[in-house]
Amino acid sequence: MTRGNTVRIRTLGRKRSTRYGSWTAPPWDGAGHDARTPRLRARDHGVAFDMVAVLAALVLVGAGLANLAAVDGVGAAVRQLVIAAVGIGLLAAMWRVRLGFLGVLGWISYGVAVALLGAVLVAGVSANGATRWIALGSFTFQPSELVKVGLLLVLAGVLGSDRPPWRRFVLAIGLALPAVGLTLLQPDLSTTTLLVVLTVAMLVIGRVPARFLLPLFAGVAVAAPLAIGVLRPYQVQRLGSFLAGSSGEPSGTGWAVHQAQIALASGSLLGSAGRPLTDLMERYLPERDTDLAPASLVEQFGLVAGAVVLLAAIVLVWRLALAGRVARTGHGALVGGGLAILLGIEVVVSVGGNLGVLPLAGVPFPLVSYGGTALVAHLAAIGVVLGVRRDGARRRLWAAPRWRGLRPRLVRSAAVGLTGLLVVFSVYGWNLQTTQGAALLAAGQQQMTRCIRIPPARGTITDRNGVVLAADTSTGTAGLVEVDAVPALLRSHPADLARLAALTGQRVDAVDTTLAGVPDTTLAVRVADVPATTGNTIGRAGIAGVLVVPHPRRTYPTGALLGPLLGFAGIATPAEVARDPGLPPGEIVGRAGIEAQYDAVLRGIDGEQCLYVTPTGVPSAVGPRQDPVRGADLRLSLDLGLQQRMTASLATALRAQSNPRAVGAAVAMDPRDGQVLAMASLPSYDDNLYGPPVDEAGLRAASTGPGDPMLEHVTQAAVPPGSTFKLVMGSADLVHGTVPPALVVPTGASFTLGGHTFNNWRALGPMDLVQAIAWSNDVYFYKLAAAMGPGAIIDVARTLGVGAPTGIDLPAESAGYLGTPESVAAQGGTWYGGSTVILGIGQGYLQVTPMQNALWTAGVVTGSLVTPRLGLATGTRSGGFTALPVPAPTPLPFAGALGPVREGMRAAVTGGTATRLAGLPVPVGAKTGTAQDGSLAADSYDNWTTAAAPMNAPTVVVTALVQGPGTGANSASAVVADGLSQYFAPPAAP
């Protein structure tokens, strides 16, 4: 009984009295035995032994053992079970300890714990930058866990005594400082914080007056920011991760919280234990058996298990708090209330950290998290409180009156607050799983998945009749395929390794050597290149961790016939990756020509074989496979027969001159919709040079050869158009009305302006516009240009597409050049009157591509400007084709005035400079031209012919450029004639 409480008993079984009050004692029989009924004795026994608290503690211990068995194996759980048995034995022993020994027990526990804390600093075991453990052989323990119990007991003894308030306050602070200081030196910030919180809580519930507490709180508030300076880097990181949000670094606390949230989300109601990927996903959760054990428990056994654990924790806290109300002394009451608050705070901080709503402070969940010292200490402390409850229930005669003020204050309020927080956390956890569960689970799957790209077959390119122009041969039976293996998986299955060696025709040791020569984290290593038929056999064998990947190979059956137009496909360059950051390493993309223009259509969609990897990146299982999606086929508007005829004719024309640098280009286009029927470009290159394997010598020769074989000359070579520009000049005259088309203009052999004479190609007589076009009368157009001025010419030329890209679906098209007085002056030049004169015959500040020439020819003969197009449709032979969108033709505002120009084109064929086209089976209109080119020798020119047929309703325009002297076989007109002959030839008999 407490000091100073003298009890005077008057009669047995009746009313007793003391100096502090009176109560009725239990009845006793004459022999001195308890005369209460068995029911009443059982009731008091239930008060003495709190089975509910014990069951709650056992539930928590059992949950921790179940989690430990799931994540660390049965062996670890058995070891923890042995430690738990020791702890339960201590609980039972402490339950039997008399209250009179509580003070002695407290001082012994405190003294031993502080001494061990000092020993840790001298001979402790270090891990993760902290020295917190003492090792005795294979046995280690953590004294900072013992000091919680020791400090609790001595603080309860001091604060529950009859000492004056100031002495209780000073003694409590003095006892706390060694424990806090030694723990901080380890450093163990989480335990240090708990010890501080425990001390403050004990001061509050121990009824220390506010005049002592307020200065203490103020000092703590002022010193708290200064404590940042003594924190270790990982402790600062924990605090920063909480304040700034989760960190993506695998070693960061924010990352750990993210993993905890993934675990909570993946557990669903009943958990995911036993599912194929749960064990692997569990390995991504750090500290899954200690700090993040609650998240691991929910992942394994579901929200139901988590709710049961929280309920057991709440029950235990309340039973400990209520045990303090049964205690007969202030010392015992403070032990119960203090332990209830300590356990409650540990649970709140642990659960809050797992949910991410509180900093992850490194506070384990009491009785659930792995740790023998903490488990034994907590169970022993619970036993002490149960012993206090037992003593109070069995010795109520010795209890001090409540009005003496020794009862702890605010214990129930603290229990209510802690319970409320845990309820809020429970709702938050439920909401996290229901609202973010799918996203978090997907993030968890993604982080443990690594995928090997499987390239798709590239789509086929055909001409308008379905003739193959470019094909992917990687999926056929010819050629080679690559056999890849996942080293970590094959090395762990020798039988599979032997099967793979046999299928690839290699020795087992050779394959094993290949696999052993790479790190375990390697996703795949090439084992062999085998014929496609062998690859199919290996694929059907279904060996886990073996992939058969086709070698990407593009073939171009027509070779150099369409090399610059089709382009080629190859591994994406850094520049292409910069334009499209989504390209995976080693992706095959179109690098030039049609292959580049329609790469998104032809490339297809990569497939992937995914692997599940450990947190260190080592593959551990085969994941899902997504087969690649073959690229769509592309049908071009080209007619291969017409292409071959025009290319052969162009080659003949170039062979008839001696300049090796001379180029030739020809295009056939439907003037009604812009469909390009043929595009011949010489010299050319064979796009099969790009392999694989790459023909480096062939590519070097092509890239340095004369005449720029790598260029597509129809759209990328710009030269002066010569007299073919007179179609534009005639159109400009009709638009502006400078010279009436029927007016006969004297011409002759030359024209003089400003003292400079401009010669005609031959002396010609007076002519009107139609005749001047037919005979390509230079003097007529000299005079017309001089009278019209540059502005009117340039205005109409731009309307007909001169000086701008045509918009054809090919990359790197040249815009040509159409100079103006302003642009020439801006470049430091001078526009003279003669500049306007020679512009009239397609010379001077003017360069065009054959495609631009064909475009204005089509505009003149149809009255509309089209957009040239090569792409006709995309799709598959099995699924059908879808026509590609085509821009609508743009009507020319002066289309109705172009009749005289068309008549001049027709007259050029019937009796002018283009009579070579007169023998075709349809009426043809044409314009020829010869331009001086400073890049050519003195006796070589840019020879042009552009024609349309039939002139009454044109369906084709053919334009050709041939460099050379322009005599004999070196003729652009011959190329055009051959092209038109092929186009209008009757179809071959079936």
Task: Give a concise summary.
The chain is α+β, with helices and mostly antiparallel strands.
Q: How would you describe what is shown here?
A:
The protein is α+β, with helices and mostly antiparallel strands and 990 residues long. It has a 6-stranded mixed beta sheet, with no helix packed on it. It has a 5-stranded antiparallel beta sheet with strand order 20-19-31-30-29, sandwiched between helices. It has a 3-stranded antiparallel beta sheet with strand order 1-2-3, with no helix packed on it. Strand 5 and strand 6 form a beta hairpin. The radius of gyration is 48 Å and the shape is elongated. The protein starts with 6 loop residues before the first strand and ends in a 6-residue tail after the last helix. Residues 1-36, 40-47 and 241-249 have low confidence and may be disordered.
